[in-house]
Amino acid sequence: MSMLGRTLVTAALAGLTLAACGGGDGASEMGNRQASRGIAVGEPNGGVPVVSEYIKMAQGASCASTRNNLYVIDSKYVLWDRAGSCADNAYGQQLMGPTPEAVLCTAGQTIAGPRTSCSDDSVRALFDTMLNNLDKADLGLGAGHKVEPIGFLPESGTPIAYKTIVSESFSNIATPREVVIRDAAAWSALWAEHSKTGSAAPPVDFSRNMLVAVFQGSGNPGCGSFDVVYAGSHEGKVLVEYEMRDMSPVMVCPAVVTQPMRVVSLPRVDASGVATPVEFRKIVSPYLNFTTVEPALRTAIDTQRNVVVRDEAAWASLWAEHAGAGHALPKIDFREQMVIGVFRGPKPSTCHGGGISAVSFRDGKLQVGITDTEPGPDVVCGMMIVYPAHLVVVKRSEAPVEFVTETRTRQ
Asked: Is the pTM of the predicted complex or chain greater than 0.90?
């Protein structure tokens, strides 16, 4: 029986907190470290900004997954520049005085369109200059002003935006390696070791950014997928995940040995020269990178729901709700694995179905494809209420999970 496509695509995020939430003792500690750079900590002192207060504000932002930067200007003002993938209020900048409540100027997206306003006209020119030069280390202010970036680590579980700097299949570095680069000298040395062409290393502003590089090593037969797939804050560290996936079932393998490598840039989260630890996680996956948990079991969950389970307690609770009594809890190693489930709710016939059809990383997210089926006009179906469901086990990742649904008509 053929399957004809009439495709409806929807997307929903599960487990993704766009905000860089948090604070607590970690924020206070980072604020204290900033004191060595001449920035006041503790009680306000002569109108000098209290850094820890601004860190808490930035960590609690509702839309700051793409950018979340703080700068102290002339030990007098604080500029906050943030952006995220939100439908409304996706970006904004604020210039503030000695406290976050002392807002002097604002700019950003509003319902009425982009808006810029200042309660103090004396700083409007300064603010406009910074808005026009957010990509520059000195914010366009020049040598007459002192600009100090404030490093801070977002709350655990928060994604960190990253950008690919280099993606190559052939490297002089022929052994697996994971590298963190925080200065130009280290970057030049690594590039000289890697490059087969002798070209100059791509420029990087290390006052704002750091690099992570991953080398797969020699011996790859040219049939694999290799990439950095996620970066985020995780238990006081920066977690960088990269995936090695066997694509030979769907690729023609070239007769060449490669040495794939990736270099990505992340915002610098080191506070006052104290390097934040970076943890690497290698995800090795086959082409079919998920396995179904007891496919013949009928679910007791009768409402539509998508779930991501990363711990034993949540798994036991979901399984009890799904399977009921008499079905032993399947063993999952949550150090290496996690569970993704889709429950499609009530459907009117036996020709209706729904389940997970694909799992892959894309744009820093783990994208889960759901394929729903429904009968065409001439298909005979059993008329009864069904509740399609699908639970799968995949390699563990801390990346946010995005569900994308496709509906197909059965003929």
From this structure: no
